[in-house]
């Protein structure tokens, strides 16, 4: 589990948590029909925080993270991202989405566009960046995720790990201030998990605000400054990683950790 | 090299095998025949039966087709030629095609102006080039946009100001959209529709009259009822194809939209249009539509038919495209949303390219059907090629000629439809090569 990140020295110098609030969620509730998926969520994320969200399947982790960029709509409470409250106002939604990057479990790259086009699309159309400049930025980020030589291929020609790194690069091209990850490694083979986690660690080292739904506990221990445990649509426990893993308080957390860590 | 069997003993490969070319397939016609025609005795028997059937069909058809009657001037002349050559068997009388092919192609279009529809065809093919095959220079796109107006002018003639004034309406629409889209997207769209419509209704007529009286430039005008033959089929077919694709896409998006009223309107439109036979819509176009129009307006019948056929095929296209839209994974919509693309951007850049790629066979299928259905205009008195066969038979020279005309018309339609089918295959292959 943790071997993927074990052999890496983590540079914590830039991982500073500031006082500035990046995401503020107050008493947020969400229903799917009559099913109460998210119950009274309160969460404040400061700029520079790296938060790992874990919990059993169906506990609402994905739903929570998807509410933050309005892929899902919440029914009550408040979500404030970068000082803008999410409401049904389309202008606000598009503004927030262009500032919050998101990586999906199944990458969701655009199969009919090359890697480079995948990366330049949003900057050109949403940010109105000139094409040359957008391509330069894209190449910069593709170099960062170590696949500049694949720029002119199509997503279908890449391995899963490479595709996920492209997806990360694609989000980064919008220069987001917050990155959301929804189980970015759970569709990947162990070898590829490492390359994606490495990319995510590098992002953390540069001080990116990150919310990751993941079961990579090694990553959580190495990088996160806070771990959140969710069950049945509620935040059951949150703590800094050392305490969370070594001294869990709630019985549910203990059970979950014993299932996921212990053999 | 180690020759130890890997499964039976501890094994270490000592030398790696270098890459080698694949074995060449044994070639040759004999092998092909054996493998494809006579692999087993049963298949061999079937092959023989099939060959016999093909032979029977051809031995009856070919003599009919091979007939020395190209020069005949009338049906009785045909019979004389055949009798003189000692051939009593029933044979085709091709003289009618030589005599009347121009009429089958152009209907009653004035023969001194045949160059106009011919040139219009060239303009059409050139204009479609960049749309169908991409990678043309950018300025060529301008020619493509102008080509419908040029084609209209060439075929119908009249003052050159009319097509220019109509085109101006579209330009006005674009400007209105640009000017007001900043205020609000919906206001922009409404303006883009309202401004040109008002212009066409109230300003364009007087404008054209004035310009025509100042500078009477133009071609001799040809009335719609002089259009006919394959020309008419192509005019109706191509216009309807070009217009129904965007309309169908918009209807499909409307049907898939979250907005209640838009969805219901699209569904209602699609179901009503689809649920009624085309021939009924054509009768509606020819008879009923005049009741709804202000008295005195003489709305061209060909134009009415084009509108009806367009609406009809748009409903089918909408359903085909809807299938394509449904096949695009939800993750693609979410990927586009998460990057902050607006609805129209994500449709235009992400969803539609993928949905249309899936829909190509269905779309082309609909177009082929539509193109052949243009022959139905025969029933409302337009002289499409089939209608002209009646006109040709009405002359005493060719009274009694059927199959030769139908074969000729069939070949024309086959060439057009087969090209569409081939183009669809080409496009599918091209898109497949571009992205796996
Ligand atoms: N579109 C939907 N409609 C109705 N119910 C849904 C929908 N999406 C998710 N759910 C339900 O909401 C609950 C939370 O789902 P969610 O995907 O957030 O769980 P998760 O914690 O991400 O689980 P996993 O670890 O399996 O991804 C689940 O019980 C699920 O069945
Ligand atoms: Mg999930």
TrEMBL record, chain A:
<keyword id="KW-0067">ATP-binding</keyword>
<feature type="domain" description="ABC transporter">
    <location>
        <begin position="23"/>
        <end position="257"/>
    </location>
</feature>
<dbReference type="GO" id="GO:0016887">
    <property type="term" value="F:ATP hydrolysis activity"/>
</dbReference>
<dbReference type="InterPro" id="IPR003439">
    <property type="entry name" value="ABC_transporter-like_ATP-bd"/>
</dbReference>
<dbReference type="InterPro" id="IPR017871">
    <property type="entry name" value="ABC_transporter-like_CS"/>
</dbReference>
<protein>
    <submittedName>
        <fullName>L-glutamine ABC transporter ATP-binding protein /L-glutamate ABC transporter ATP-binding protein /L-aspartate ABC transporter ATP-binding protein /L-asparagine ABC transporter ATP-binding protein</fullName>
    </submittedName>
</protein>
<keyword id="KW-0813">Transport</keyword>
<comment type="similarity">
    <text>Belongs to the ABC transporter superfamily.</text>
</comment>
<dbReference type="InterPro" id="IPR003593">
    <property type="entry name" value="AAA+_ATPase"/>
</dbReference>
<dbReference type="GO" id="GO:0015424">
    <property type="term" value="F:ABC-type amino acid transporter activity"/>
</dbReference>
<dbReference type="GO" id="GO:0005524">
    <property type="term" value="F:ATP binding"/>
</dbReference>
<dbReference type="InterPro" id="IPR027417">
    <property type="entry name" value="P-loop_NTPase"/>
</dbReference>
<dbReference type="InterPro" id="IPR030679">
    <property type="entry name" value="ABC_ATPase_HisP-typ"/>
</dbReference>
<dbReference type="Pfam" id="PF00005">
    <property type="entry name" value="ABC_tran"/>
</dbReference>
<keyword id="KW-0547">Nucleotide-binding</keyword>
<dbReference type="InterPro" id="IPR050086">
    <property type="entry name" value="MetN_ABC_transporter-like"/>
</dbReference>
Automatic annotation (TrEMBL), chain B:
<feature type="transmembrane region" description="Helical">
    <location>
        <begin position="265"/>
        <end position="289"/>
    </location>
</feature>
<keyword id="KW-0472">Membrane</keyword>
<dbReference type="GO" id="GO:0043190">
    <property type="term" value="C:ATP-binding cassette (ABC) transporter complex"/>
</dbReference>
<dbReference type="InterPro" id="IPR043429">
    <property type="entry name" value="ArtM/GltK/GlnP/TcyL/YhdX-like"/>
</dbReference>
<dbReference type="InterPro" id="IPR000515">
    <property type="entry name" value="MetI-like"/>
</dbReference>
<comment type="similarity">
    <text>Belongs to the binding-protein-dependent transport system permease family. HisMQ subfamily.</text>
</comment>
<feature type="transmembrane region" description="Helical">
    <location>
        <begin position="41"/>
        <end position="66"/>
    </location>
</feature>
<feature type="transmembrane region" description="Helical">
    <location>
        <begin position="113"/>
        <end position="132"/>
    </location>
</feature>
<feature type="transmembrane region" description="Helical">
    <location>
        <begin position="186"/>
        <end position="208"/>
    </location>
</feature>
<dbReference type="InterPro" id="IPR035906">
    <property type="entry name" value="MetI-like_sf"/>
</dbReference>
<feature type="transmembrane region" description="Helical">
    <location>
        <begin position="228"/>
        <end position="253"/>
    </location>
</feature>
<keyword id="KW-0812">Transmembrane</keyword>
<protein>
    <submittedName>
        <fullName>L-glutamine ABC transporter membrane protein /L-glutamate ABC transporter membrane protein /L-aspartate ABC transporter membrane protein /L-asparagine ABC transporter membrane protein</fullName>
    </submittedName>
</protein>
<feature type="domain" description="ABC transmembrane type-1">
    <location>
        <begin position="230"/>
        <end position="424"/>
    </location>
</feature>
<dbReference type="GO" id="GO:0022857">
    <property type="term" value="F:transmembrane transporter activity"/>
</dbReference>
<keyword id="KW-0813">Transport</keyword>
<keyword id="KW-1133">Transmembrane helix</keyword>
<keyword id="KW-1003">Cell membrane</keyword>
<dbReference type="Pfam" id="PF00528">
    <property type="entry name" value="BPD_transp_1"/>
</dbReference>
<feature type="transmembrane region" description="Helical">
    <location>
        <begin position="301"/>
        <end position="321"/>
    </location>
</feature>
<dbReference type="GO" id="GO:0006865">
    <property type="term" value="P:amino acid transport"/>
</dbReference>
<dbReference type="InterPro" id="IPR010065">
    <property type="entry name" value="AA_ABC_transptr_permease_3TM"/>
</dbReference>
């Amino acid at each position: 589990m943790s071997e993927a990140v074990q052999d890496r020295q983590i540079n914590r110098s830039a991982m500073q948590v500031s006082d500035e609030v990046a995401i503020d969620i107050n008493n947020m509730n969400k229903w799917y029909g009559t099913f109460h998926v998210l119950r009274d969520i309160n969460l404040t994320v400061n700029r520079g925080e790296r938060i790992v969200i874990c919990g059993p399947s169906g506990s609402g982790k994905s739903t929570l993270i998807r509410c933050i960029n309005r892929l899902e709509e919440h029914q009550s409470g408040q979500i404030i991202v970068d000082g803008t409250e999410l409401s049904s106002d389309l202008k606000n939604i598009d503004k927030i989405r262009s500032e919050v990057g998101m990586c999906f479990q199944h990458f969701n790259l655009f199969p009919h566009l090359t890697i480079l086009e995948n990366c330049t699309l949003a900057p050109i159309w949403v940010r109105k960046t000139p094409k040359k400049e957008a391509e330069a930025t894209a190449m910069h980020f593709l170099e960062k995720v170590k696949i500049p030589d694949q720029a002119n291929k199509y997503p279908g020609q890449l391995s899963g790990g490479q595709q996920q790194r492209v997806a990360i690069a694609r989000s980064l091209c919008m220069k987001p201030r917050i990155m959301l990850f929804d189980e970015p490694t759970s569709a990947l083979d162990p070898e590829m998990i490492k390359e994606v986690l490495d990319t995510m660690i590098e992002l953390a080292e540069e001080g990116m605000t990150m919310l990751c739904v993941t079961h990579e506990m090694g990553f959580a221990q190495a990088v996160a400054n806070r771990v959140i445990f969710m069950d049945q649509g509620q935040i059951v426990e949150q703590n800094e990683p050392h305490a969370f893993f070594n001294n869990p308080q709630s019985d549910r957390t203990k059970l979950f950790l014993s299932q996921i860590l212990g053999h | 090299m180690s020759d130890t069997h890997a499964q039976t003993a501890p094994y270490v490969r000592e030398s790696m095998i270098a890459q080698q070319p694949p074995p060449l397939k044994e070639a040759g016609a004999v092998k092909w025949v054996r493998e494809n025609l006579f692999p087993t005795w049963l298949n061999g028997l079937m092959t023989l039966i099939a060959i016999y059937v093909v032979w029977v069909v051809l031995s009856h058809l070919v003599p009919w087709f091979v007939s020395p009657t190209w020069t005949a001037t009338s049906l009785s002349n045909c019979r004389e030629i055949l009798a003189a050559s000692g051939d009593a068997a029933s044979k085709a009388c091709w003289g009618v095609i030589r005599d009347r092919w121009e009429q089958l192609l152009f209907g009653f279009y004035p023969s001194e102006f045949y160059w106009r529809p011919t040139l219009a065809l060239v303009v059409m093919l050139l204009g479609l080039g960049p749309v169908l095959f991409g990678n043309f220079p950018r300025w060529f796109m301008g020619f493509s946009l102008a080509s419908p107006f040029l084609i209209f002018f060439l075929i119908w003639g009249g003052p050159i100001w009319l097509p220019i004034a109509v085109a101006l309406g579209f330009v006005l629409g674009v400007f209105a959209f640009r000017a007001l889209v900043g205020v609000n997207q919906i206001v922009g769209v409404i303006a883009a529709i309202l401004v040109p419509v008002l212009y066409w209704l109230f300003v364009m007529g007087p404008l054209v009259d004035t310009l025509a009286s100042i500078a009477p430039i133009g071609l001799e005008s040809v009335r719609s009822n002089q259009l006919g033959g394959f020309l008419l089929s192509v005019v109706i077919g191509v216009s309807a194809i070009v217009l129904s694709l965007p309309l169908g896409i918009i209807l499909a998006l409307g049907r898939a939209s979250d907005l209640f009223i838009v969805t219901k309107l699209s569904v209602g439109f699609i179901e009503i249009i689809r649920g009624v036979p085309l021939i009924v819509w054509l009768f509606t176009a020819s008879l009923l539509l005049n009741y709804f129009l202000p008295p005195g307006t003489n709305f061209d019948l060909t134009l009415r038919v084009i509108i009806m056929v367009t609406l009809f095929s748009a409903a089918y296209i909408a359903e085909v495209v809807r299938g394509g839209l449904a096949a695009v994974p939800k993750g693609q919509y979410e990927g586009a949303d998460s990057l902050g693309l607006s609805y129209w951007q994500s449709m235009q850049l992400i969803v539609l390219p993928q949905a249309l790629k899936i829909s190509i066979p269905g779309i082309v299928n609909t177009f082929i059907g539509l193109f052949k259905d243009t022959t139905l205009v025969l029933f409302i008195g337009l002289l499409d090629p089939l209608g002209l066969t009646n006109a040709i038979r009405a002359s005493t020279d060719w009274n009694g000629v059927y199959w030769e005309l139908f074969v000729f018309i069939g070949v024309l339609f086959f060439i057009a439809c087969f090209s569409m089918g081939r183009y669809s295959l080409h496009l599918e292959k091209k898109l497949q090569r571009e992205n796996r």
